[in-house]
Sequence to fold (374 residues):
Amino acid sequence: MVKRKRRALSAMMVMVLSISMGLNAGATSISDAEKKAGELESQKSAVEAEKASLTDQINKITTQMTDTQTKIETKREEVTKAEDNLISAKVAENTQYENMKLRIKYMYESGNTQFVEMLVESKNLAELVSTAEYVSQMSSYDRGMLTEFQDTVAEVTKQEDSLKKEYNALTGLQDTLVTQQAEVQAVLDENNVKLADLESQIGENAATLAQLQKEAEAAAAAAAEAAAAAASGGGGSSFDSSSVVVSGNGEFTNPCPGASYISSEFGEYRSESDPAHKGMDFAASTGTPTYAAAAGTVLIANYSSSAGNWVVIDHGNGIVTKYMHHSAICVSAGQTVSKGQQIGAVGTTGYSTGPHLHFQVELNGSAVNPRNYL
Ligand SMILES: [Zn+2]
Fold:
């Protein structure tokens, strides 16, 4: 009977869950919330993979930028050095020019004054050289030296230009890298926003799911209670094995304090087949709780064609109690019960003409008057 009741309960729970899912069709059902959780997790995984890829790109760009920055600094030092070299070369060239002018001036001091003036007034080297070409007396040494210094200036200028171009190329590359980094960072920022949004959605969905599950559990619990009440015959009682109901001052507690009256005493003549009633009948409405008369071990808790749903308890010292015709039983064979613990609910199962508890006490296998113990 207990097993049958459990099956009924689980069937009821399935029904309640189905109903709850049916009623909550849409974004708020458990199955939808679970499905959504799966989708969100998969989206999150995709975004996380994208994030990993973007972070990898950023890291590569950053490494390249660091490398380029090192090259830029080296190149800048080279350019600075070339600039210094150019200045030195120009100083050497200019010194040669000034010395040459002095020598030429000295050479022609007492001669062609017009020519000396020309030299002194020369705006630049080219003009001077061209003028000097006409000076046959000008030493070939001075001309050679001047050309050499001019070549040095030209060479150093060329080097400096080349270095500056390299430097510009590197700074250009660095600018490109900065732009790239900013672009990837922008995508990464968007990605992080997406991820945060997904995480918040996942959190909300999990909360919704938890709430739905809580509601379903509450509904199932309510259904279970209703099922228990229904199983006990609709009398409105529910099993409560956690508290005990003890009444009277006897060795035994009243097994059915909710009974309205005793419909049959022990030893009463009932019929030819049952000339002496072996127990006491507690007339009570279906569902009225029945209690263990004393502490003991449940020997039997099942259905019998004559006793109906019955419970037999062994109390030791040769004393056994029997409880018959239950609509439902809430104990199992083998379990121990305490005095006043509910064992079932009144019914009229088995050989019975109306709802009542047949309570029987046996001492060493023979039925005795329960009133001796109550
Ligand atoms: Zn009886």
The CA atoms of residues 79 and 163 lie 6 Å apart. The domain at 261-372 is CATH 2.70.70.10 (Glucose Permease (Domain IIA)). Residues 264, 277, 279, 281, 358 surround zinc ion (CB under 6 Å).
